Amino acid sequence: MPGDAALFDIISSASIACGGHAGDETTMRLSLRAAKARGVAVGAHPGFADREHFGRRRLFLPPEELDEQVRGQVRALVEYAEEEGVPVRYLKLHGALANMAAEEPAVAALCFAAVTGLVPGLSVLAIDDSAQVEVAEALGYPVVREAYADRAYQPNGLLVPRSQPGAVLHDVGAIAERAVRLARAGELVAIDGSVIRTEATSLCIHGDTDEAVAIARAVRAALEAEGITIRAPY
Fold first, then answer.
1. d(C-alpha 156, C-alpha 148), whole Å
2. Among candidates 47, 46, 38, 49, which has minimal Cα distance to 13?
């Protein structure tokens, strides 16, 4: 995406698309090199192999096909990362697959089991208060709980579907304030105004939004102004 290079100077961890919804050998290697040069932690970011919809359309695949897609994507990034001398620290599911795994333990279990043994000590970056957390912990993965800076939440703690108005947030100042509230109070405000408690220690900013770089800069500046340390939790 246009802002990728600039983002590597701001973020502490990068979830790299690995050939499913986006990405190829060139983009993976460039991202790995940028992360290595800046001390940014790297994670594998597999999604449905559905480039037309950027992995944001729900697909109901046979278990063996989903297993093959997830494992194949992660294995590709791991192979390139080994050649580039960059450790892959974590797994983070993308888009519709991530949301389905947040709702359905069986989907989460299939995805996380698919990468068993690929990387020693691999962590799972999981949507907080979702089936992803429960399943990853049950499978013995170290879990980092994640919240989203630029996405609206339902009162149940899951994300508002992108098909609904207001699902994606664009107000840079409001997003920065939201990040500080999350870090200080462990709270997120849902789309209906209700308050959600969260234990998230990682904050996602999507790189494909027009405001991605501005959001990342504002969030980092706001957190640092509050004396909050920013580092990759892996």
1. 14
2. 38
Q: What is the pLDDT along the chain (234 residues), one digit of tens a residue?
A: 999 999 999 999 999 999 999 999 999 999 999 999 999 999 999 999 999 999 999 999 999 999 999 999 999 999 999 999 999 999 999 999 999 999 999 999 999 999 999 999 999 999 999 999 999 999 999 999 999 999 999 999 999 999 999 999 999 999 999 999 999 999 999 999 999 999 999 999 999 999 999 999 999 999 999 999 999 989
The type of residue at 70 is: V
Is residue 230 assigned to a domain?
no
How many separate domains does the chain show? 1
**What count of other Cβ atoms lies within 10 Å of the Cβ of residue 60?**
7
CATH number, domain containing residue 8: 3.20.20.370
Is residue 218 in some structural domain? yes
- CA neighbor of 159 nearest in space, from 128, 186, 180: 128
Query: Is residue 101 included in any domain, yes or no?
Result: yes
The residue written with tokens 């944001």 in the block is: 56
Range of the domain at 195: 4-225
CA distance 93 to 100: 10
